[in-house]
Amino acid sequence: MPSKISRAEFDMLVAQSGLPLNEAQKQEIHQAYGLLEGMIARVNMPMPREAEPALIFVPEVR
Amino acid sequence: MATIPTIADAAKQIAAKQLSPVELTEACLARTHAHNDTLHAFLLLTEERALAEARAAEARMMSGMLKGRLDGIPIGHKDIYNTAGLRTTAHSKLLEHNVPTEDSKVVQLWAEAGSVMMGKLATHEFAMGGPSFDLPWPPARNPWNPEHFTAGSSSGTGAAVAAGMVLGGTGSDTGGSIRGPAALCGLAGIKPTYGLCSRAGVLPLSYTLDHTGPLAWTSEDCALLLQAMAGHDPNDPASANRPTPDFTALLGKDVKGLRIGVARTFFDSDNRVNDTTRAGINAALDQFTAMGAEVRDVDLSPMADYHACGFLILVAEAYALHEPWLKSRFNDYGESFRDRIALGAFIRSADYIAAIRKRRALCLELKAAMADLDILVSAAAVSEPPKITEVPKWATLDKPSFTMPFNVTGYPAMSICTGFGVGGLPLSMQLIAKPFAEPVLFQAAHAYETATDWRSKRPALVS
User: In chain B, how many domains are there?
Assistant: First the structure.
């Protein structure tokens, strides 16, 4: 699945991340990023505001 | 010693003074010396230590002071489990010379149970990147055919147990890393309920998805190993503080009336298994029906929903752990690990939070689906093991994983062997139970294994 963001936009993300990717690595990971975008879309379905995450902080009782 | 005993059989013979732990260990060492250059299961063989521990077990046996059913049993540890004074590398150049000063909790518990530690076993790099051919050590190979993949990440444990180099070993499972190698190496392997076994002293990959657990030849052996590693550990913040049950309590109990659901859409359409794998699962379901279980199909969300949720959490958490090294030593990682984990740099906080909100919804869905079930059945792998040179780097992104749903939800799940397919390579299925219902999981798996003949066949390499 091709990425929805352009290679130039992806290069900006890489620059912000500080990862030392070479040209070949950028190209391959940009392609894989398209698959990641599909996953991100799957988890971003509408949910009510009160739908808490699975992880909550449990204070330790002493 | 011609045949490779199960842990249960060896324990009985040791208890009856009919089997010498030293001879048992020497037989495992002989198989290791004969085949490790082909299988690359061990990264570090601790032969002298193993023989010393076997002699100590033998002395206990002779004096009637055995510690239990693991006393004198040769085992190995995945090389992400810290071992005091012994190199623990995660199969990575980054930790090539790392020598911990303390044992992980599970290593400590198995040592206290009298097991014989044979050494450290291969893993995919940091329990994620593999198979890799650009690391300081080669990847483990499948004993059923060394040209084929073991799956991972507990690859060395899968290979070593199948080849009888050890009778059982540790694995870790963040998205399927125990159940995958168990499936492709023809073993039993259990990812217990999240929180059942300590992860203290085990190199983390993803804090909220990581599990520790055992692999062995049979489900009964897994129960024995799990008994010695489960329990509350205050040094693991996710550890469940509850009594540890007897995991062997239901072994041998029939499955009449057991309610079994089948997540058929997972393996019929979401990630369609090959014909031999489907035939193996269907034959197993027929076997359960013949034994009196009630079998019916269950509807769940698409497996891709579970997979997306798990993968995003995994990669985001793993990236957070590895970011300093990824920025400073990117090319010291193997290509497979570094490229996969680099994706974590591009997951926004809003998307990570969306994933863990989705996670709760999926936990609630599975809880409702299993309310009137004892066991859920799914596939553990899409087919027999592929050739190790033909595993795509992005396979974990491309197709939803059969195992990830139960890391996302924390439910106990195990792989067992359902026979042999193309090329005589192992077939598998996955059984899932409710949280902390491991005894039921072992009941079902053991009933199936004893009703079939698959556990009598070992790889030709060691037969």
Answer: 1
Query: Distance, in angstroms, between B356 CA and closest chain A CA?
Result: 5
Contact A47 B357 (CB under 8 A): yes
ipTM value: 0.96
Indicate the pLDDT class of residue A62, thresholds 50, 70 and 90. Answer: low
Per-residue exposure over A11-41, b if at least 16 CB sit within 10 Å of its own CB, e if not: eebbeebebebeeebbebbbebbebbbebbe
The mean pLDDT value for A17-25 works out to 97
Q: How many Å lie between the alpha carbon of B397 and the closest alpha carbon of chain A?
A: 6
pLDDT beyond 90 at A18: yes
Q: What is the pLDDT of residue A57?
A: 78
pLDDT of A34 strictly over 60: yes
Residue B24, helix vs strand vs coil: helix
Looking at residue A1, its pLDDT comes to 80
Residue pair B77/B107 in contact (Cβ under 8 Å)? The answer is yes
Q: Does residue B206 have an active-site annotation?
A: no
Report yes or no on B446 lying in a domain. Answer: yes
Q: Which of B172, B177, B219, B239 is an active site residue? A: B177
Q: What is the DSSP string of B87-114?
A: ---TTSGGGTT---SS--HHHHHHHHTT
- Report the alpha-carbon distance of residue B272 to residue B282 in Å, rounded: 14
Residue B397 near chain A (CB below 8 Å): yes
Chain A contact present for B358, CB below 8 A: yes
Q: Do B346 and A25 touch (CB under 8 A)?
A: no
Token pair listed for B359: 């996670």
Would residue B20 show up in a list of annotated catalytic residues for this protein? no
Is B327 part of any domain? no
pLDDT at A60 over 70: no
CATH code: domain of residue B89: 3.90.1300.10
Assess if residue B334 is contained within a domain. no
Domain boundaries, chain A: 7-43
- Sites in chain B below the pLDDT cut of 70: 1-2
Backbone φ and ψ of B86, nearest 5°: -120, 135
Identified catalytic residue from B104, B153, B383, B401: B153
**Residue B398, pLDDT score:** 86
Question: pLDDT at position A56, please?
Answer: 80
Q: Contacts of residue A18 in chain B, CB cutoff 8 Å? A: 327
Clarify whether B269 is annotated catalytic: no
Among the partner residues B330, B351, B356, nearest to A40 by beta-carbon distance: B351
